[in-house]
Every structure is written in structure tokens, then in C-alpha cells.
Amino acid sequence: MIRLAQPAELPYLQEIEVASGEPFRDVGMPEIADDAPMTLEALAEHEVWVAVGAQGVPVAFIAVGAVDGVTHVHQVSVHPSCARQGIGAALIEHVTPAGGSVTLTTFRDVPWNAPYYERLGFREVTDPSPGLAGIMREEASRGLDPARRVAMVLLPAQERA
């Protein structure tokens, strides 16, 4: 079940984000695994949806907002115990507006990042909008290597080639 996150759940979502970052250690990116999760304030500023597991507890979340009039995924995290079950794809589908696009930024060569999103239908953005370019500049200012990052877009189904 997917529903809006409740304010009391936001600290738990940080735990999900930390746990979902651990696999970065296995691909030689411990600095990403050690990166702090979204702050409670940042989570509260976004529209946050959760996927709820059998016990009624969130197992994944997606935080979105508008960037240049397009739905932008600021963070999607699935607890590793629930990975590879289609939960992340379901969250993305849930926030994708009918006839609208979705953007995100991610790591170019990490298997569960850009290659995964490509399988979902996302394509690399070659000419980012001002807001998307600003997000990428902000990521670079936090030490994320621009050469390893990519902006991606999921176009409306009728526009996908």
C-alpha cells in the first residue's frame, strides 16, 4: 500500500535512507553510504509517499517536489530487506502525473541508479532546465562528482521512444 507519510514517520524514513545507502560500500563509494540522510526539515518540505509493509510500517519512501513545473524525485529509498520487489518502481509510478514527466538526478554507473531508471523508461537529460541544472550544481558543491552524476527524465508514455 502506498500512502502519504505521516509527520511522526519522518525520523524512521531517515533510517530507511541510511540503510538503503549501505550497498554503496560494495561499489567503492563509502562516502555515499556515510552521507547524512535528508533532514527532517527537508522531508517535511516535500511531498513524501511511503510504501507500507505487512506490519503497517513504511519500508520505502519517495520525496518529490516541483522543479520548473515538473515532478522531481528528490529521494527514493527502499529498505534493503525489501529491495528487488518492485517497490521503488511502484513509488515512481505513483508520483508520475498522468501525461506528465518526472525528473531525478542519480549516479551514472551504479547498477541500481541510472541503469535501473533506464529500465523504467527514464532517459538522460542533455539540456537540463534551470532548476535541474541548479540541483546538479548544488550536488557538486556538496562533493558529488559531476562526471559520475546524471539528470534523467521519464517522459509521458505517449512521448517515449
Q: Please, could you describe this protein's structure?
A:
The chain has 161 residues and is an alpha+beta fold. Helices cover 30% and strands 26% of the residues. It has six helices and seven strands, in the order βαααβββαβαβαβ. The chain has helices spanning 10-21, 30-33, 40-45, 87-95, 114-119, 130-141; strands spanning 2-4, 47-52, 58-67, 70-78, 102-107, 123-124, 149-154. The chain has a seven-stranded mixed sheet, sandwiched between helices. A hairpin with a 5-residue loop joins β2 and β3. The radius of gyration is 15 Å and the shape is globular. The termini are far apart.
Largest sheet: 7 strands, mixed
Task: Output the number of helix runs.
Answer: 6
What spatial form do the alpha-carbon principal axes imply? globular
**Helix fraction?**
25-40%
Number of strands: 7
* Widest sheet: strand ordering: 1-2-3-4-5-7-6
Q: What's the quaternary structure here?
A: single chain
Summarize, please.
With 161 residues, the protein is α+β, with helices and mostly antiparallel strands. It contains six helices and seven strands; from the N terminus they run βαααβββαβαβαβ.
How is the secondary structure organized here?
Layout: E1 2-4, H1 10-21, H2 30-33, H3 40-45, E2 47-52, E3 58-67, E4 70-78, H4 87-95, E5 102-107, H5 114-119, E6 123-124, H6 130-141, E7 149-154
Parallel strand pairs: 4-5
Antiparallel strand pairs: 1-2, 2-3, 3-4, 5-7, 6-7
